[in-house]
Structures are given as structure tokens and as C-alpha cells.
Write a structure and sequence with these properties.
Order of helices and strands: HHHHH
Largest sheet: none
Low-confidence stretches: none
Number of domains: 2
Number of helices: 5
Distance between the termini: 55 Å
Length: 87
């Protein structure tokens, strides 16, 4: 039986062996998932963020606003949406 295993391992492509080894490393898989989520958020940022990152709400200048339905992360002292600036 060991002879059959060595033939199978030798016939596997380097990419397949690398992928199999990568999947066994849980930290690497979690890191890949985090990177994919970040890439997805970046790709969807124009849809997720309701305001331009530098747009100001004139009514909120001078007083930082708490999180609300209009501004999920709130606003800074210049009336800019924090969620849009984070993304």
C-alpha cells in the first residue's frame, strides 16, 4: 500500500499539493477569508457608503453627531460622515 500512496502523491500537481497543504493551515484559511471580506467591502464601498468621503453636512458643522439612521458611524466636527471616511 505505501507504494500506491507514493505514486499518488508524486502524480499530484504542485498546485494541488500546495492548495491541499494551505487548506490544512487554519490560520492561513482565516486570513484568506478576512482578505476576501476586505476586498468585497472595498469593491462595494460606493454602494455601502451613502456619502462622498469629503462631503459636508452644513447643519452639523461644529458639533459631532452621534450615530443615527442617516449616519451609521456619526459625523465628525466638520459634518463629514464617518462611515464614508472609514471605507
Amino acid at each position: 500500500m505505501p507504494a500506491a500512496l507514493s505514486v499518488t502523491a508524486a502524480s499530484a500537481s504542485p498546485a494541488r499539493r500546495t492548495w491541499r497543504r494551505f487548506r490544512r493551515d487554519r490560520v492561513a484559511v482565516v486570513a484568506l477569508l478576512v482578505l476576501l471580506i476586505i476586498a468585497l467591502v472595498i469593491a462595494l464601498a460606493p454602494i455601502i457608503a451613502p456619502y462622498a468621503y469629503d462631503a459636508q453636512d452644513i447643519d452639523l458643522i461644529g458639533v459631532p453627531d452621534r450615530p443615527s439612521a442617516a449616519h451609521l458611524f456619526g459625523t465628525d466636527s466638520l459634518g463629514r460622515d464617518e462611515l464614508s471616511r472609514v471605507l
